[in-house]
Amino acid sequence: MDYKVAVVTLWAEDVPQTAIFYRDVVGLPLKDHHGMMPHFYLGETILVIAQGMPQAALNPVPVNFPLLGLTVPDFDQAVERLQQHQVVLPPGIAHGSGGRWALFHDPAGNLVELTDLS
């Protein structure tokens, strides 16, 4: 069977602020609102921002592993866009055999990663 991810949900106490962040800062296209649950396009997957309190994993290994990782078409441009909006990239930009990546927290506190797998 050929499984694909259909929906990913992130929880936020302030849904409008978090939705604006994903639309204006990250640059995701808004699909629709479905009331208080904005839906964004992530390729064939839908990202939903739902009302709730995000909770980090207890005793995570590794500690800084993201909840959501996004591959972007232009990594440098995406990082510049984050920096223009004063988004902090705690460990900076990391490089490895698989490419480059940058971690940041969204307004709800979810740890997100942008990656360039080129």
Total helical elements: 2
Strand content is: 25-35%
- Biggest sheet, strands in spatial order? 1-4-3-2
Molecular shape: globular
Low-confidence stretches: none
| CATH architecture assignment | Roll
**Count of domain modules:** 1
Q: What is the helix content? A: 10-25%
CATH class: Alpha Beta
How many strands appear in the DSSP assignment? 8
> What distance lies between the first and last C-alpha atoms, to the nearest angstrom?
28 Å
Rg calc: 14 Å
Succession of helices and strands: EHEEEEHEEE
Keyphrases for this structure?
alpha/beta; 4-stranded mixed β-sheet; globular; single chain; 19% helix; 2,3-Dihydroxybiphenyl 1,2-Dioxygenase, domain 1; 118 residues; 35% strand
Describe the structure.
This protein is of the alpha/beta class and 118 residues long. The protein has a single domain (7-52, 62-116), classed as 2,3-Dihydroxybiphenyl 1,2-Dioxygenase, domain 1 (Roll), CATH 3.10.180. Helices cover 19% and strands 35% of the residues. It contains two helices and eight strands, in the order E-H-E-E-E-E-H-E-E-E. It has helices at 15-26, 75-84; strands spanning 7-12, 30-32, 39-42, 45-51, 68-71, 93-96, 99-105, 111-116. Strands 1-4-3-2 form a four-stranded mixed sheet, covered by helices on one side. A four-stranded mixed sheet has the order 5-8-7-6, covered by helices on one side. 19% of the residues are buried. The mean pLDDT is 92.
